[in-house]
Every structure is written in C-alpha cells, then in structure tokens.
Amino acid sequence: MQCQECGKRPATLHFTKIVNGEKTELHICETCAREKGELLPGTSSGFSIHNLLSGLLDFEPHNPNPAARPQAVKCDTCGMTYAQFSKIGRFGCSDCYKHFSERLDPLLKRVHGNTVHVGKVPKRAGGHLQTKREIDRLKKEMQGRIEREDFETAAQLRDRIRELENEMSG
Amino acid sequence: MAKKKFTKQALSQWMKGEGPDSDVVISSRVRIARNLRNQPFPLMASPEQSSSAMEQLLCVAESGRLNGLGKIEQIRMSELTELEKLVLVEKHLISPSLANESRNSALILSPNEDISIMINEEDHLRIQCLSPGFQVREAWETASKIDDIFEEQVDYAFDEKHGYLTSCPTNVGSGIRASVMMHLPALVMTGQINRILSAVTQVGLAVRGVYGEGSEATGNLFQVSNQVTLGQSEQEIIENLFQVARQIIEHERSARGKLLDESFLRVEDRVRRSFGVLTQARIMDTKEASQRLSDVRLGYHLGLLPEVDSLVLNELLVSMQPGFLQMTFGEAMSPEDRDRSRAELIRSRLVTLS
User: Fold this and answer.
1) Cβ–Cβ gap B162/A124 under 8 Å
2) Would you say the pTM of this structure is higher than 0.90?
3) pLDDT of B324-338, one tens digit each?
4) Which residues numbered 139-168 in A keep a CB inside 8 Å of some CB on B?
5) Each residue of A55-68: b (16+ CB within 10 Å) or e?
6) Which EC number applies (chain B) (predicted)?
7) How far is A127 from chain B (nearest CA, A)?
8) Is residue B209 a part of any domain in this protein?
9) ipTM of the complex
C-alpha cells in the first residue's frame, strides 16, 4: 500500500478510527509523518487528539494544481488558511466554519459520526430553529395520525403547524 | 502577598458533600464551551480583542446576574503567580491551557468552588460544574442554567447546522464535555479493566487516566467522558454516559465482592500494608502515594479500614500534588524535598485519625 500523503513511498503507519461504528483509515509513510511533525502513537508519548485530528484534516489526495488544493482556502474574516487549520486543528473564528464549509462535513463525520447539531438552542441567537424543530416534530406526528386514520387529531396538528409557520414569517 | 482563598484548602467545599455512589465515583463534571459572535476565537484574537471579550463576559458577573451562585470571585489570570495557577490546575478548577497561555484570561469562581467559569481559554467561555459522587445530570442542569444567564447578556456564535461554534472541531455542536472520575481498583486487580475500557470506547466515550499518561492510570483513577458533541442532544450525551458509567460501577462492585469472597486475607493484607507504609514512610513519590492511597481507599470502602476518613483521602489527592505541596511547605522545593514533605503530610493526615 502506498502512502496517502506523498503517493511514492510505501505506507508503514496505519490508523483506524471508529466513531459510532463508522471506520476511517489513514495510511502514511514514516517520512511524511515525520515531515508533518506529527507524533504518532507508538512512536512517542506526546500523541494527542489534535495530532490525530490534523492527520485526518490532511486526508485529501494530492492535486497537482496548487490553487485548487484545499490548503489554499482562506477564511476572509480572521485570515486563517486551511493549511494553518489542518496543522493546529483549531478554527480562528466562527466564520471559518463558513469559509471551510466544503471540507468540513467529511471531517465532522469522521470525528462525530454526524454533521448536524440537534441539541440545545440559545433563546436569542438561535432564531427560528426551535420553532422549525417543533414544526418538523408536529409534521411527523401528523403523518402518523393520518396513517392511523385519526383525522381529527391530524387536523388539530395541521392548524398548530400553520400557526407556527405564520409566527415565523411574521 | 495575601494568600488567595482557593490556595488555603486542598479540598474544595463542594467535595465535602457526600455524593451518590461515592464508593466508586469520586466526582462528576460537565463543561460547556461557548464563543462570542463576530469575535475571533482567543487563539486568533489580538490583545485588544481578547481584552474586550474578557470585559464583556466579566460584565455578566458584575451585573449581579450570577448572584444566585453566592459570593463569586473574579480572578484575572495576570494577577496570579505561576504557583497559584498550578494549584488551580491541581484542584481541577482551571485547565492547564488557561494556566499556561498568557492571553487576557480570567476565572469566575463560586464560593464552594463547584462552579468555575473560564474566560479566554481555547474558547471565549467555558462553564464548568463539578459535583461529588455520581451526579452528572445535576452537573449538566447547573451548567445549562449558567449558560442561559450568559446568553441573556451576550450573543453566542451559533449556527443552525453546526450548533454552538467552537475553536476545536471536536467540541462543536453542543459544546458539552461530561465526565465522571472513577476509582476502579478491583477491575484493575482482576485484570478486567482493559476489556471494559475498550468496550467503553466503542460507544462514543473516551477514557483516560486522571493522573499519568494514557491507560497507565496511577492510583486506579479513570476519567470517562463523552467524545461526540455533534448530532446528539445534551440529554442523549448525558444519558449515554450515565448508563455506561452505571454499568462500570456495577462491574467494579461485583469485582470487589469477588475479591472479598475469594481472597479476603490477601486483600486485607494489601490495604493494611499500604496503610502501614503511608503512616510510617519518610520518603514518598507521587506514584507510590497514588497507588498506596488507592489501596487505602479500597480498604475503607470494603470496611477493612474503618479508622480512615474518606474526606482526608479526597483531600490528599490534591494536597500531595507538587503545586499544593510547595504552597504548604514553602516555595521552591527540589523533587527530594517534595517527596519528604509528601511523606510528612500524608503521615500527619492519616495518623491523627487513627
């Protein structure tokens, strides 16, 4: 197997990461590992989650056109480049999430096994998210009622959904 | 210089309360990460920007909205000596990162020290709640209430898809890290620990030694925490951790029962031997002290060492650490001095009881 980083030397270091049953593999050669300054497990005790993370961030196959390479992408707000981000494993500001968005979902999927937040929503900054979630929930319930031919409850749910939708647009 | 309040006692007031399942779980912790909208994360912030973020968050404390927590203390990291910061780390009240990075950072501390709010750590705001014993749900409820108080005053960086935005992608979404600190000597002695810990990592949780590297947990203390923060609600995360920790507790208890049934004399010898060493030794390094104290803690909970006070054991966990020793016995100690003082401290705390 060849190194995923340089594509020349044989891969001698292999990682397997399993998050929520989803398996991610990373195969690189020792030279590339050392060049990237990463401390790999088994080679030193200084290994941390961020080292592993930056390994995952650099997961992209090589692209000969430098402008098209993800490393060249930059956050306009704070100035952090994707190369910097993949090195330190930290975003510079909240807008990095927007500017790196194309690369982000595969990464989040690997780390969390998911890409969409379902937890707490702040009262003010959350906007209509709480209402949207409530509408989704009611729609599902309404569907279930229709299938069970409980049209009376379904109609009540439909009215409630309309109410909420009006609230949001108003 | 006047001694800071938090340096006086190794055992925080909150740890003096008796928590549920405290024979296995020492403490529960929840920390949530939040950031201010339209401001660079502390890592990329200029000194002016980080100072303004700090003032904005300290304003919430000034406004009196946190008065429900009692008489809170506001501490700017720049006011503290390196030793004082080390003591805060050893008491788990701040992270090593808050102590080591010289940003405009600050700490808000509740009088019981059960709530510590870190400003300009890796994220602008980190709210941490600690509870004695197994009370991870309670810790989350408290943290969430404090989160609401801050949200009334400041705008959070939040987006509908990714949730609460954090500096590190491993925290994004709910921004929550919940953990329980567990004492698992019987699982270690009976060789079951690795099997259990690897099972735990399969269900989205992480385990690490509380002191020491990796699985080389000194003192048989393990911290079990959630790994995933995105795509699961806080309730699911807490519940998952709760159920898994509950099972580990039961395994540990049954391993303890088995030890008593099958090798009573060996166990009794082991815990009494360690008690003897701790009350007589003149030189004691951290590693040996952790192991011996683990034996004594086990002995206490098995009813083999009734003369020991569990509060003293919890206090020693902190007070025998290098920073706290220096605070107690005078600054600038060599490692040899520390080992001597550590032995003296442990002797005096355990002997007065027997």
Assistant:
1) no
2) no
3) 999 888 867 898 999
4) none
5) bbbbbeeeeeeeee
6) 2.7.14.1
7) 9
8) no
9) 0.84
